[in-house]
Specification:
CATH superfamily of the largest domain in chain A: HUPs
Structural class of chain A: alpha/beta
Radius of gyration of chain B: 22 Å
Oligomer: heterodimer
Number of domains of chain A: 2
Number of helices of chain A: 8
CATH class of the largest domain in chain A: Alpha Beta
CATH topology of the largest domain in chain A: Rossmann fold
Largest interface: A-B, 102 and 87 residues
Distance between the termini of chain B: 56 Å
Radius of gyration of chain A: 21 Å
Order of helices and strands of chain A: EEEHEHEHEHEEEEEEEHEHEHEEH
Largest sheet of chain B: 9 strands, mixed
Strand order of the largest sheet of chain B: 11-10-9-12-8-1-6-7-13
Largest sheet of chain A: 9 strands, mixed
Order of helices and strands of chain B: EEEEEHEHEHEHEEEEHEEEH
Strand content of chain B: 25-35%
Strand content of chain A: 25-35%
CATH class of chain B: Alpha Beta
Shape of chain A: elongated
Structural class of chain B: alpha/beta
CATH superfamily of chain B: HUPs
Number of strands of chain A: 17
Distance between the termini of chain A: 51 Å
Chain lengths: 318, 255
Amino acid sequence: MKKIGILIEVKDGEIKTANYGVISAARVDDHELYAFVLDGRGDAYKDELQEYGVQKVIDIYKEDGEIPWNPEIWARAVIHTMKHFEINTLFGLTSAQGRDLLPRIASSLDSPLVMDCINVNVADHTVRKSQFSGKVLATIRLSGHSYIYGIRPNTIEPESAPCEAEVISYNVPLSTGKMLIKEIRQPESAGIDLTEAEVIISGGRAMARAENFGVLHECAEVIGAAVGASRAAVDSGYAPHDMQVGQTGKTVSPKLYIACGISGSIQHFAGMKTSGVIVAINTDPDAPIFEKCDFGIVGDLYEIVPMLTRQLKQALGN
Amino acid sequence: MKIYVCIKHVPDSAANIIIKERNKFDESVKYVINPYDEIAVEEAVRVRERDGDSEVIAVTLGKQGAINTLRIALAMGANRGILIETNERPDSMVTARALKAAIEQDGRPDIIFTGKESIDSEGMQTMYRLANALGMPAAYNVVAFSVTGGQVTVECEIEAGARQVVEMGLPCLVGAGKGLNNPRYIKIPDVMKAKRKHVNQVDLDSLDFEKPSGSLEILELQPALEKRQCHILKGQPEEVVQKLVKLIREEGKVF
């Protein structure tokens, strides 16, 4: 039976929801699914992982306990684990963490890798991904002795496939690396990560100043959304660049994307076109965004968004 | 210090990509320097401007036309360029090997700057493969950089606005992210000066490296069709928002 490894991402002791789509992408034929967990809490995740068809949970740790975050060391730990369990296929997320781990693993193994896959055919090693700012869909074949796939978060629907998983502890031999993580600086307000958010509300040039993002934050809070920004808003200094969605910003794929005062350039679409439902609010009826969204409201965001916040509050009963 | 900057000649993000022969595209579109690589060039030039005696060498792999992107880097302040010429569009495994071979043939790098990814193929891996081939540490999505006494300190943007502070010794590779700097505008005299700077052209096939054991092959390119049909919600604001709330609950299925 072929074995497939899945690199599981956790945050604050919980499995990130986006992992379940990755597990479903990897669950084909009668392959055996091995979930790799690096925070030493494999037992705690067993129930959730087996719900989606994971048969083996590999709890990776080192001699003196948990492996502290360091992309170089973590990549090495995953490679050791793949070799130990004779696994030549690895799935992971194209998240901030996945972007820093999967290519390290692939380059050490000299293994082909495709990031940001929206579809994977494990049997014939082909994937689909977007290229050229989302204007082109490419079908790519991987050839080699091993295969690594990074999945764009939220693009593959999770499917429940309950089974009974076994937790195996694996003590990985590790030496020190060439890079040292001195410090992790958290932002003042720890929001939801854009690349994994299920709902995003973004503001564009019409935000006019940084303080005005408050109306978006109020709405976001009601529905548990992340707040994004267009390049125009970032370049004008209304929002930090880590909030930027689009070509030179983040690529996102939420179930719902609400664009407020965003005209809808090709570069912005490059970052959010695989979203589920796209809603646009803009005063300009001729804004290009209205050609590429599902629902549009021609109106002033400062009137519409607070109304939306209030009505959503009522609808959600709080 | 010897600072190498690896850059890529890419179709402008606004260019219309027309697919031909199933897995190729019409390359007669406007090309630009990959935006993240432009940030990498800027940072390299700033390092040289601060310490004075460094040399910045821009390296690219591509068709003859890629020389235009090298000229941009030269106009921004790079001292000279290397064009690894090929008519193919090799995958990242070959590209990284070729870059390594060309750099080693030229000199011993102290720092390699490059963009964190390219906006055409969006492969997100060449920088790691190059660093690995050269046995260097690599930092991804770098938004702050400093070097003092052989020690590099960078800040890398990680998830949800968080940053990690990373220390590496020399030599090392820095994958530039947006926010590291604002690249300078090029002035006409800089363009003129760039024309006189030296570009060493080497053929990809003349470089000596072992063929990778694996590969990526583009089987097919298809235009990503826009399937959305926009419904403009009409009526008084209250009413329109009511419709929207109903629609996003039914269609968005998020709450």
